[in-house]
Design brief:
By secondary structure, the protein is an alpha+beta fold. 55% of the residues are buried.
Amino acid sequence: MKSSESENGTAQGVGARVLRKEDARHLHGKGNFVADMSLPELCEVAFLRSPLAHARIVSARRPATGSECVVLREDMADALDIVADSTLPTYQSSAQPPLAAGKVRFVGEPVAMVFARTRAEAEDLAEQVELEYDELPVYADADTSRAATGERIHAQWRDNTFVTLHADKDFEAHAAQASLVVRREVSLARQCMVPMEGKAVLAYWDHQADQLVVVSATQVPHMIRTVLAQCLGLDQGRVRVISPDVGGAFGYKCVLQQEELCVAWLAKTHRKPFRYIEDRREHLIAGANTREHSYQMTAYADARGRLLALDARITIDGGAYSVWPFTIGLEPGQAVGNLPGPYAFRGYRCVTECVATNKPGFVPYRGVARTGVCFAMELTLDAIARAVGREPWEVRLENLVPASAMPYVNVANKHFDSGDYPASLVKARDMIGVEAVRRRQGETRADGRLLGVGFATYTEQSAHGTSVFASWGTPVIPGFDSAAVRMTPDGGLEIRVGVHSHGQGMETTFAQIAHEILGVDIGLIKLVHGDTGQTPFSTGTYASRSLVMSGGAVARACKALAPRILHIGAHLLGATPDAAVLAGGRIVVGDRSVPVAEVAQAWYLRPDRLPADVDAAGLEVTTGFKPKVDTGAFTYATHAVTVAVDPETGHVDILDYVIVEDCGTMINPMVVEGQTYGGVAQGIGTALYEETPYDRNGQPLASTLADYMLPGATEVPAMRIHHFETPSPHTEFGAKGMGEGGAIAPPAAIFNAVNDALRPLGAEVSRTPLTPRRLLEAIEAAQVVDNRKAA
């Protein structure tokens, strides 16, 4: 029996399609979320938010009744502003007060905090607070803000730009060799993240432990503990952060939220429990935004479409504040570094500018910057293919880094560790059936719809560590992730990790890793996470790092525990440790064996049965892990899609969608597929539906789900997925992170397919989301150009 099998022979280890352990409680409504909790004397919190995008606060008057339940910034003198500094050159730091001080910088910024027995009572009281504003010039987009000469968004700044980054690698020399120059401008709309559960925080004072306890729906409990202690002037030992079940996050919950700091301050000050639950309108108006990039792309290629050099200017609308800890520098840093993608060209010049505007600040969203750079790069490659008269997949194939070149350092100094990028493209081409699509395009369709096929290939830098984050200058730099593994008296296993799950299936996959090494049935393995009082430190769950980093630590801890188990088990069998092996939850010597439960009983309950030289550290190990090469394990994939476009209505139907992905060794293929499918659904939202528009006064125009469109079951097609498994040489089991990848490629693949369909009309689209109106405008613009040429 293999160690990766349970006693009944069912595969449970690495590579097994094990049903997720956590699903049972969620499917039966037994989850434990912040909104489910109840404490004596609990007060609910509401925030009074600014109706203006940019204004000075002239005065604030509390109501005559209930004024003691109204908090303004001046009342929170012992709470520091949220400051996310960076060592990036040109970076300008912003200080985000927990409640607006002096002036407001976006619609929805919290100005006053009100608490009462119920949320309704708190909201009623908040409406009685009288605020007087003096309006200031509003910078509702990057161009307006960049051109401003008057009032700055942050008075101490030299201009309204957060940071400007530059890259130049042999650009002029390689561009000079080109026989073809292709230019394109592409852009992505601003989006919200819309997890099922919005911000949620409950805080109280634990008098027994003399400790502030903050229960928050966060991805990064240990980091939130660190910054709350700093902002509230407490020793870290007097702050405990607990993250219970989290109903989705996507990056939205990996930073310190103003509301977290405010509610924690209330609990520290009043020594009572307080809770805030974000409603959907608050999320859409004031929740941090993402994705708003624009690209000016100039590609230099030879006559066959081989890319020689790329010149790019990227503008990012970063909103009003830089978030802690990743700072606004993360978005432009990821953009300039990941724009070249999986392609083997050698001339690169890029300027990336992140501009402050009177909108909510940017927060890292699933696929940070990579959705944008993939969109820009892949649309540009299709434009090159059209210019040279070749199939887009053929041009891609000649530009991708070949498998024979791995490991490969690309033009942006990304260290690709392993993989076969061209093979993923060829497989996707065959799965989508390009030749059949081309035949169908030549046929006249009775419904008048146009068919198109599109591709997008990307790389996802996952589990990048100390050196990468240090180069971005973030306040917190990830290092080792730790895991504690302890055998329980009945032979089960308890795993403690500092990362936290918001849907990744960690309770299952970490148990599979432990089972692979120790053979303990996964039903007897419990994962403890999301509590700074019970788990070893980790910077948390983000950047597709948890499985590689904390999963790697779990593997190392189990490997360190195994010899101790074998030593005791061999002694029980009257054998030497070198004669014993672990298999199926038993210690085996020849044809004799004992279960690991008997080893546990000997350590905990029958020490008289232990060997004299037993390891006094017992059946518990804590150890850390990070890859020796910490520049990242690179997942990659090719997405291909077939669409039908109605040129009369502007409607786009997705007819077929295929994914060929490689995330190294899959711990659980079913979890990998679930993450991929969910990511693609979000990518379809980016491509076709989701947009947070603002008017020139900085007023958000999508404040409800009637205005902010999300894809539903009828808009997400049945997807087909194929897996490659190229193990990373730097990680345990060769695993690579893949939590963000599914969301990266869909906008590029879908737009390329639509542009392929529109070729007979001479139309092209390049701005998300691809609404029917935008598609019809593109067709109309192409017709105007044709008419002018004819005239």
